[in-house]
Amino acid sequence: MPFRNVLAACPCAAALAAHAGSVSYSYDALGRLASTVYSNGASSTTITYSYDPAGNRTSVVNTTP
After folding, report:
1. What is the pLDDT of residue 32?
2. Residue 33 CA neighbour count, 13 Å, CB half
3. In this predicted structure, what is the pLDDT of residue 18?
4. 3-class DSSP assignment, residue 10
5. Region of 28 on the Ramachandran plot (φ > 0 left; ψ -120 to 50 alpha; else beta)
6. What is 25-61 written as a DSSP string?
7. 5 SS3 class
8. Angstrom distance (rounded) from CA 55 to CA 65
9. What is the average per-residue pLDDT within 12-20?
10. Per-residue confidence at 1, pLDDT binned at 50, 70, 90?
């Protein structure tokens, strides 16, 4: 799948388009993506990810102020 299609399917694609600045990632103790922060200096968007005990992603929450 071309990268642009992967990005379009990403729940954070709208946040990425709105914040053409920096992106930072944090990971939990098991190495899974825990959060993504998009910042353009004036505002930021945080996307947080939750997982079940089997490691399946159970939620993606956009905490845009």
Report:
1. 96
2. 15
3. 52
4. coil
5. beta
6. EEE-TTS-EEEEEEE-SS-EEEEEEEE-TTS-EEEEE
7. helix
8. 28
9. 55
10. very low
Domains: count for the chain: 1
Cβ pair 37, 44 in contact under 8 A:
yes
**Terminal C-alpha separation, the chain:** 32
With pLDDT > 70 as the criterion, what percentage of the chain qualifies? Answer: 68
Neighbouring CB atoms inside 10 A of 7's CB total 12
Q: How is residue 10 written in tokens? A: 């990403």
Residue 34: CB atoms within 10 Å:
16
Supply the range of the domain harboring residue 41. Answer: 3-62
At residue 8, what is the residue type? A
> Model confidence over 33-62: pLDDT tens digits?
999 999 988 888 999 999 999 999 999 999
